[in-house]
Every structure is written in structure tokens, then in C-alpha cells.
Amino acid sequence: RRYEVGVIAGDGIGPEVAEAAIPLIEKAAVAAGAEIAWTRYPWGCDYYHEHGRMMPADALDRLAPLDAIFFGAVGRPDVPDHVSVWELILPIRQAFSQYVNLRPMRLLPGVSTPLAGRGAADLDMVCVRENGEGEYSGLGARYDQGTPEESAEQIGRFTRRGIERVVRYAFSLAASRPRRLLASATKSNALQHSMVLWDEVVREVAADFPEVEWRPYHVDALAARMVTHPDTLDVIVASNLFGDILTDLGAAITGSLGLAPGANLNPDRTHPSMFEPIHGSAPDIAGRGVANPIGAIQAGALMLRELGLPSAHDALQNAVEQVLTEGTVRTPDLGGVAGTSEMAEAVAEAM
Ligand code: NAI
Ligand code: MG
């Protein structure tokens, strides 16, 4: 069958890693008897300078009929980050009800971790991050700008429905994994409205999953636990902000931010899901051809799985792990000297 996939490569290293990953995703799909038709959308900071907005007014209408969206990264120093992120990636996540942000945090073979000796060999976690509301609801305002009385309010809006659906997804994911553990990131000692509701909903949903062993951790203690006892963690369910922070930490302890994939999932399949490396546009290394494409490639593997092509997922994922295990081709973030395209070519050969 034929799949329609939209590509928003974005800015900085976004296009570098996305274009390196696309031929590999294609190759895996074709080997599984599928076909992918790619449509590229040149949206991002260049588009912003030309048109005064990050994407056209009808962008969401154009993306809606697709089977999936493959995303690079967005953001550049010449456009304020709150503009680039709020006008491109967050509207897509929210409009398309991609309420689960699934972020595996697994130590791949051949990759070294700064946690050597701390149960790190068994490091296999996955974060289910709430992706549509919470701290990133966009509510709030600035007051009395430029005066000594200046202030700002940023409102985290949590709905029972919004918490419940993501927590349910996390519990069923935990139930499907061998260890059946779930950690809920909370902070209900200090956030006495939103996180108290979060805890209540988690407790209610837990009753439907007696086979899952779960417990809440305050997010600060959980961050510390990820470093000191990562082998005790399996599935982590977290709000939008907490999950954002914990997954960069998870990427760092599993070797590199450049390895980590993410899937913005609409589990109800009413709109396309979106797949991306979790890193940003990395202006510090953009344009040099040294970005690690593995995060984008693994995001492509997640996309193949969600499209219903598990054998294509496995082929691509196994090729990635073979290249990392061999260890001869590594980008600088993994201590090597290979460029983005060399790394991608090595994965292609392994496949
Ligand atoms: P970043 O993830 O772009 O970079 C953080 C550090 O990790 C940098 O030192 C970078 O060189 C390194 N890094 C990231 N990806 C890498 C890769 N594939 N290979 C090797 N090294 C890699 O985060 P930062 O610097 O906070 O943000 C840069 C821009 O990206 C900002 O405009 C920010 O708003 C945007 N951003 C966009 C995201 C998205 O599109 N989903 C997510 C995070 C940030
Ligand atoms: Mg982030």
C-alpha cells in the first residue's frame, strides 16, 4: 500500500537529519512491500522572514489528509523561540490531538553512558509525555510591561479528560512491557491544584490496571532517580513540561540527544501523527554536516511501526543497532569523526 507522508524539515540541523533519514525509511518501507509518497513543506524560519508567519494559514488543512508527518526541528537565533515553536510545532500537536508524546529512552548496544556502573546496562525506559495541554496550554499574559511593577502569569491548564487519556495510554503501554512498571511524575506538594488533580486521575486509572506496579514520584526526585537508579524505571508518565525536561535527561544518560526519537501520537487516529527526533535545530553545529541522524532515523522507524509496517520498523532499527554495535562509524556527539551522511550510509549498508 501507498502512504502519504508530509515532511517539515524545518531549520538548522532539521533538514540535515531529516533528508539523511528519508531514503532509509523509504528503503525499509519498500522492502516491506509498501510505498511512501513524500511531500515536502518548506515551512520554518525562512518562510517566516518571507511571509511573516511560520507556516501558511491553510497549513493544517493541507496536513490533515496525510498518513503521517515527518518533522526535523524548528528554531533559529534570528526568530524568537516562542514564535517559532508556538507557530509551527505546537499548533500541529494540538490541532491534530497528538496527545501522546512517546519517547523511548533506551541505552543502545555499543553506546556509552555517563552513568557507567549504575545499573545503566539495563537502561530501558520510555516516557509518555502529555502533549496537548498542561504547562504548554499557552494561557497567561504579561502585565505592566516596562514598569517596575511588571509581572507575567503562565497558566498550566490540566483537564481531567486530557490527563486521563494520556495516563490510560501509559498504563496500557506498561501492561504490555515485561516489567509492567509505571512511574508518574508529579509535584503535588507544591502545585496544589493541577498536580493534585493529576495524582487523583492516575490513581483512578491505575485501578483498571491491577497488573501494573505503579507509584508517583515528585519530578525532582524522579530526575535524580533517573541518574542514580535508572534500572528501577520502566514507563514514566509525565505532564508536558515535566516530560520535556525528563526526556532530554533521558537522552543524555542514554548516550546523546542526537540519538533520541519521539512520536507525537494521535492514538484515536482521527488525524495524522507526527514523528521527530527530540532534539532541536542545534544552531551551534548547523551547516557543518556533523549532526547525528540516528534520532531522526529511529523516529522514522517509529513512524513505520505506527503505519502498520512492523517488519520495516525492525529492519531499520536492527540496522541502527548493528552500526552502533560495530562502532566504527560515529558522529562527534558519540566520540567519533563521521559526518551525518556517512552515518546514514552505514545504516543503509547494514540494512
Ligand atoms: P538542541 O536540541 O537544538 O541542542 C542542544 C545541544 O545538543 C546542542 O549542543 C546541540 O549541538 C546538541 N545536539 C542536538 N541534536 C544533535 C544531533 N542530532 N547531533 C549532535 N548533537 C546534537 O536544543 P537548544 O540548543 O536548546 O535549542 C536550539 C533551537 O532548537 C532553539 O531554537 C529551540 O527552540 C529549538 N528546539 C526545537 C525543538 C523542536 O523542533 N522540536 C525541540 C527543542 C528545541
Ligand atoms: Mg525538548
Automatic annotation (TrEMBL):
The keyword Oxidoreductase applies. It catalyses: (R)-malate + NAD(+) = pyruvate + CO2 + NADH. SUPFAM superfamilies: Isocitrate/Isopropylmalate dehydrogenase-like (SSF53659). Keywords: Manganese, Metal-binding, NAD, Oxidoreductase. Its EC number is 1.1.1.83. Residues 4-347 form the Isopropylmalate dehydrogenase-like domain. Signal peptide: none annotated. It comes from the Bacteria. InterPro entries: ICDH/IPMDH, IsoCit/isopropylmalate_DH_CS, IsoPropMal-DH-like_dom, TTC_DH. One of its GO terms (molecular function) is tartrate dehydrogenase activity. It holds the Pfam family Iso_dh. Its cofactor is Mn(2+); Mg(2+). It is an enzyme of class 1 (oxidoreductase). NCBIfam families: TTC (TIGR02089). Belongs to the isocitrate and isopropylmalate dehydrogenases family. This is D-malate dehydrogenase (decarboxylating). It comes from Gaopeijia maritima.
